[in-house]
UniProtKB/TrEMBL annotation, chains A, B:
Gene3D superfamilies: 3.30.1330.30, 3.40.1280.10. SUPFAM superfamilies: alpha/beta knot, L30e-like. Transmembrane segments: none annotated. The keyword Phosphoprotein does not apply. One of its GO terms (biological process) is methylation. This is RNA methyltransferase. The lineage of its organism: Bacteria, Bacillati, Actinomycetota, Actinomycetes, Propionibacteriales.
């Protein structure tokens, strides 16, 4: 059972994990150095625990205690209880969804572990926006994609906003970060995946055609503005496009990934 | 040629259209009463003008004048030129994308005008989030949807954030607001559309099956939490679902609309 600790001072040093949640730079440093991440809202906290992540502590106003009683019963981590005003002073914003939890990160698995047994993999190149990373995880999970690989420059899927947008899919979806940008796609090809870059390149074929008849697919997505790097475009086994109305040449990356993931998993032979 | 007017006082009454852009409540009132909307950034301003909307005025820092010189040459509306600091004081935020324009709204067309000749229509029920409305317009336009109809409670597609997320697609896509929530779907059916509600209802069939062989489709989307109202679900000709991985029961509305629009326009006979 979590120990309930009443907090009456916003400067209480035990609240260090929860400070200044809107300051992206500061949070990145703090979370990296302490190996933690923040889960926000009952549903997301629940999914983090179900995903096997261990809590460092909880923070919530009293009225949220009941809804999380079953979770608090199963842990020894402290639960800091404070007024909503005090919570806002600490975190820097109004915590709409009530509960927060600070969780231990785990060492990232190797690429080999993540792709083992996978038939469909998303590979994200330099998607630096947390919201977009979260949205891609959510759509990918819904569409039955088996794993996600991130280029070294991609935004952190365990950053609070990414977790929230992903609705916790970052906890159930196997993922890791590619140790090297160079050589990543050829390695996937060597592991039996057909790598398909979504791009507006001239030799791009409609995505439905590109995925047809394949049994292991790695879908490669870049960010909206710059798109996929020339190296990755050249190294991908195929280049594909989502056909769009004439005169329109881009989709939001979350929308594009939803369509591409749907068409990919639908084309795979039934498991 | 637009008259360039240098502004040195944030309280200048001529800047009324541009005040407090982050205050949603206040902006709604102001924009409704004055029949205006705000376009932000060179690309969006350009698309609003190309869409035939007339400017009331422009506001920008001096360094953005060159990029918009061709647009300013073609209008008699005043262009207020001021420092970025002053612009921030007026609008309440840092105007990243440089230029702002205040534009005249036009009377909304009738439903009959909007659906005339359309083969694919999106019908949005009570999507109250501006970002989601904008994202649905953007995906719909990219996927070749012909028109959008909004229920009375949907968010305003001409609100600044919706316009921005839509990347200006709200200016090229024919749309209007349904005068009545009641009876809207039967009217579309009477006009020859097969109305298809995206829902988790028990009798929902996979969306690809639902759209097969149709020549005129109205896709009905609701918001993520509550979904489509019981009345609209019952009144729709068909109920359809985007098949998802077991245990996952929702997609972001922007992702769902992208997939549904793709599958719908692809199923229509070639024009």
């Amino acid at each position: 059972m979590a120990e309930l600790i009443e907090i009456t001072d916003a400067a209480d040093p035990r609240l260090g994990d929860y400070r200044d949640l809107r300051d992206v730079q500061l949070r990145r440093l703090l979370e990296a150095e302490h190996g933690l991440f923040l889960a926000e809202g009952e549903k997301v906290v629940r999914r983090a625990l179900e995903g096997g992540y261990a809590p460092r502590s909880f923070l919530m106003a009293e009225r949220w205690l009941d809804g999380l009683a079953d979770l608090l019963a199963g842990t020894d981590a402290p639960c800091y209880v404070l007024s909503e005003e005090l919570a806002e002073q600490v975190t820097g914003f109004h915590v709409h969804r009530g509960a927060l939890a600070s969780m231990h990160r785990r060492p990232l698995p190797s690429v080999a572990e993540v792709i083992d047994g996978a038939r469909s993999v998303l590979v994200l190149e330099d998607i630096v926006d947390h919201t977009n990373v979260g949205a891609v995880f959510r759509s990918g999970a819904a569409m039955g994609i088996d794993a996600v690989l991130l280029s070294p420059r991609c935004a952190d899927p365990f950053y609070r906003r990414a977790i929230k947008v992903a609705m916790g899919a970052v906890f159930s979806m196997p993922w890791t970060r590619l140790p090297e940008w160079r050589g990543a796609l050829p390695e996937l090809s060597a592991a039996g995946f057909t790598t398909i870059a979504l791009t507006l390149a001239e030799d791009a074929v409609p995505i439905e055609e590109a995925v047809e008849g394949l049994s292991k697919v790695a879908l490669v997505l870049g960010s909206e503005g710059p798109g996929i790097s020339p190296r990755w475009q050249a190294e991908a086994d195929r280049r594909a496009i989502i056909p769009m109305r004439e005169g329109i040449d881009s989709l939001n990356v979350a929308a594009a990934s939803a369509v591409a993931c749907y068409l990919t998993t639908r084309a795979l032979p039934k498991a």
